[in-house]
Amino acid sequence: xxxxxxxxxxxxxxxxxxxxxxxxxxxxxxxxxxxxxxxxxxxxxxxxxxxxxxxxxxxxxxxxxxxxxxxxxxxxxxxxxxxxxxxxxxxxxxxxxxxxxxxxxxxxxxxxxxxxxxxxxxxxxxxxxxxxxxxxxxxxxxxxxxxxxxxxxxxxxxxxxxxxxxxxxxxxxxxxxxxxxxxxxxxxxxxxxxxxxxxxxxxxxxxxxxxxxxxxxxxxxxxxxxxxxxxxxxxxxxxxxxxxxxxxxxxxxxxxxxxxxxxxxxxxxxxxxxxxxxxxxxxxxxxxxxxxxxxxxxxxxxxxxxxxxxxxxxxxxxxxxxxxxxxxxxxxxxxxxxxxxxxxxxxxxxxxxxxxxxxxxxxxxxxxxxxxxxxxxxxxxxxxxxxxxxxxxxxxxxxxxxxxxxxxxxxxxxxxxxxxxxxxxxxxxxxxxxxxxxxxxxxxxxxxxxxxxxxxxxxxxxxxxxxxxxxxxxxx
Length: 476
Hints:
By secondary structure, this protein is an alpha+beta fold. The protein has 16 helices and 17 strands. Strands 1, 2, 3, 16 and 17 form a five-stranded mixed β-sheet that branches. Strands 6, 7, 8, 9 and 12 form a five-stranded mixed β-sheet that branches. Strands 13-14-15 form a three-stranded antiparallel β-sheet. A hairpin with an 8-residue loop joins strand 10 and strand 11. The two termini are 38 Å apart.
C-alpha cells in the first residue's frame, strides 16, 4: 500500500519579496515526514524576450522585479557588451558599479530593517499584530528611522544616475548614458559618514542578538554546505569577477570565469515548483547544491577589499570552524557586513577622478552570436545569457536568478524547523513564523526567480497520512 500521511499548507508566506507556499506532510504519528517550499508562478521572460532586439534587454529584463531591477539592468548590459564584443570605458565601468553599490545598500536595508528585524526584536512567538515594521517604528523608532534613511540613501544614488528609483535607465550596450556631476558626487560623499556609522551600530545590534541567543541562533535551520560567489584576487567581488565554489570544510572546490558557467552549473527541476534547483555539475544533484547571497559570498571569499568590512569579517569568522560559518541565522550578520562594504566601496568610487569623466560609451560594428553577463545581486549570483542572430534579434535567453541557487537550502531549512516545531495539525503561530523566517534569511525574490506575472500569494498546507488536506493557512 502507498505511504499514508497528513499535510499542512502555509499559504501565503509573508514579509518576503514575492509569495510562496509551504506544504508539510505528516506521518501516521503526526510527526513531520517531509516539507516542500513551492514557488508556483509562471516563468515567462525567457520565452517572450525571444525576437526582441538585444539592445532592448537592459530595459525589458528589469521589469522582472521592482526590488532589484538594477541587478537585472546591469547583468543585462554586461551580456549586451559581450554581444557587441567591446570593453567599456573605465568611467562607464565605475559608474555602473557605483549604481550597483546603491542597489546593495537599499536592498539589504529593506531585507534587514523592514522584513527580518521584527522577528528578532519582538521574538518569533510574538503576536503578529505587533510583529511587523509598524511595530518596529512604534517601539524602536531610532532603528526604524535608520533603516528608512539608509534605504533612501541607496535609492537616491540609483535615481541620480538612472532617473528614477525603480526601473532606472542608465546602462546601455557599450556603456552608460550619463556621468555624475561634481555637486551630485559631493552630496553623496557628505552623507556617507552618517550611513557608515548607522550600519556599524546595526552590526553591533545583530552581534549582540546572536550572542544573547547563543545556541538557538546557531541551531536555527543550520547545516553544512558549499558556498558560491564572485571573487577577484580571492576577495569578495559584487560586480565583476570569477565564480568560486568553496566546500563545507573550507577547501576551494573550483574557481572559473563567469562566462564558463554552463560547464559547471546545471539546473534540476521538480514538478511541484517553477523555481529550478541549480547545482554544481561535477557533484550532481543534490550533492552539488550550494548556498549564495551574503552568507555564500562571505564564506566563498578570502577577504573584503575595504578596511572596515575586512576587520568585521575577521570577527565573523572566529564564530565558525575552518574559517566557515554555516549558521543560517548569521546570514543577517553577513548581510550587514556587505552593506558596510558597499558603503566603503561607494566612497572609493566617488573619490575616483574617473567617476565624473565624460568618456561614457564605446561602439562596435560587429555582433557576437552570444553574450553572458554575471553580477552578484543582493540575493546572490545573477546570470543573464543571450543568443542572437546576425541582425541582433534574440534567439534564446537563459536566466539563472539568485533566489534559485538557494532553493535547495530554503527547502532543507524549512524541513528542519518543521520537524522540530510541528507535531500534528495543531500548529502554533510561532512555528509558522519560524518556517517563514528561514526563507527570510535568504531574502528570496520569488518574482525574480520565476519572472512571474501577476499577484503571488503563499500558503502552508497540512496533509494527513491519507493525502487529505486537513488544514490550510493563508497569509498576506
